[in-house]
Design brief:
The chain has one helix at residues 2-17, and strands spanning 28-35, 44-47, 53-54, 61-67, 78-83, 89-95, 99-107, 111-116. By secondary structure, the protein is mainly β. The protein has a single domain, classed as Jelly Rolls (Sandwich), CATH 2.60.120. A hairpin with a 5-residue loop joins β5 and β6 (89-95). It is globular and about 35 Å long. Mean pLDDT is 84; it is low at 1-23. Residues 1-17 form the signal peptide. Keywords: Signal. This is AA1-like domain-containing protein.
Length: 117
């Protein structure tokens, strides 16, 4: 029984000494492109509610992966719109969880705007 008390005290000390849990950035969405040849980009951070941001693709995009901000407990409903390099609208999507959406017809992407409440 004495040994159990020592272990419990040691574990409590470790819990108190460990750093606080850091939540994900709830002001940043992640965007990744899938190209027509099947390759894809790593997720790129996009500030939410910061207006239109230049996020050019290096080719024709067939799918866009969108991961909305995460507040530590759940994903934040986020709407992202995509524009071609000529500012022509490629469409918009609202997501509540990480989602891959098709770009139809496939096109080059130049700009992204993401908003949440």
């Amino acid at each position: 029984m004495h040994f159990s008390a020592i272990i419990a005290a040691a574990l409590t000390g470790l819990a108190v000494a460990s750093p606080a849990h850091h939540f994900h950035d709830n002001q940043t969405a992640q965007i990744a492109y899938t190209y027509s040849n099947g390759t894809y980009t790593k997720p790129i951070n996009v500030k939410v509610n910061s207006g239109t941001q230049k996020l050019p693709s290096t080719g024709i995009v067939t799918d866009v992966f969108v991961a909305p901000p995460f507040d530590g407990r759940h994903y934040v409903l986020t709407s992202c719109s995509f524009q071609a390099p000529t500012n022509k609208s490629l469409g918009a999507v609202s997501v509540r969880k990480p989602t891959t959406v098709p770009v139809h017809p496939p096109a080059a992407v130049g700009y992204v705007t993401c908003k949440s409440n």
